[in-house]
Amino acid sequence: xxxxxxxxxxxxxxxxxxxxxxxxxxxxxxxxxxxxxxxxxxxxxxxxxxxxxxxxxxxxxxxxxxxxxxxxxxxxxxxxxxxxxxxxxxxxxxxxxxxxxxxxxxxxxxxxxxxxxxxxxxxxxxxxxxxxxxxxxxxxxxxxxxxxxxxxxxxxxxxxxxxxxxxxxxxxxxxxxxxxxxxxxxxxxxxxxxxxxxxxxxxxxxxxxxxxxxxxxxxxxxxxxxxxxxxxxxxxxxxxxxxxxxxxxxxxxxxxxxxxxxxxxxxxxxxxxxxxxxxxxxxxxxxxxxxxxxxxxxxxxxxxxxxxxxxxx
Length: 313
Description:
Elements: E1 4-12, H1 16-27, E2 33-35, E3 49-50, E4 59-60, H2 61-75, E5 78-80, E6 84-88, E7 94-98, E8 103-111, E9 115-117, H3 123-127, E10 133-134, H4 137-140, E11 148-152, H5 156-165, E12 171-175, H6 185-193, E13 197-200, E14 203-212, E15 215-224, E16 230-234, E17 237-240, E18 244-246, E19 257-258, E20 262-263, E21 277-279, H7 291-311
Parallel strand pairs: 1-2, 1-8, 2-5, 8-21, 10-17, 11-12, 11-17, 12-13
Antiparallel strand pairs: 3-4, 6-7, 7-8, 9-18, 14-15, 15-16, 19-20
Helix pairs in contact: 1-2, 1-7, 5-6
């Protein structure tokens, strides 16, 4: 049998939302325990250059997350390397089971488990992640000034990414496996009218082509779903925009979810459908999905948790 540990606040997840929640709840003398999870530091650890974090004109994603962890520890948060395998929100104190065998009980939970971009699952896609392959135009579009890029997808996300990339790229090719888009009609109209955007219908991407020294993308290989014919589309960047998957498995049968699995919170707060359970960052945000908005929500969650605990002392 493993140990049982109790805390006033248990934070699950270690991206910008989790670490910011840890900083704020530690400053409120709540002695938070933060469980890092499977990917300590979250999505920013697989992002190389970050140029939109306020106060840093240029910072490496992994370096930024190391600094956030150090900040949380310095404020007094306890950061634990463990993975939560199950979470019982049916009664307070809430109970979480760690992969280490430790049981964590807590008076308030802040969920900051994030979301992951859906990928195509190609070995070549994995090889060039961060070196020409991206799932976030807002994060990385700036690096493709004066260059040609390819976007794959057919929903709102793909159309938004393609339109955003026209601010930087000279040409944007949108590849979709069908002959029509799922995106809202008003967005499709903007897309079709844009002079920088061309569409490749009825195609799937089966390989990302590039160089090894330096590591970089030169083209994507697309296959016609009807004829099987193969086309290499030259590009400097490849953006995968086939949706995001929120990491809500722990709570999918306990909390109210919406928009394909995102945890639903009360407008203007981080309160979920269970009192004492709060959600922040990409786990609940299907609109913005930025590090800075996640950090802001982490702050909100800590303040919401502090008020909740004060009312339930």
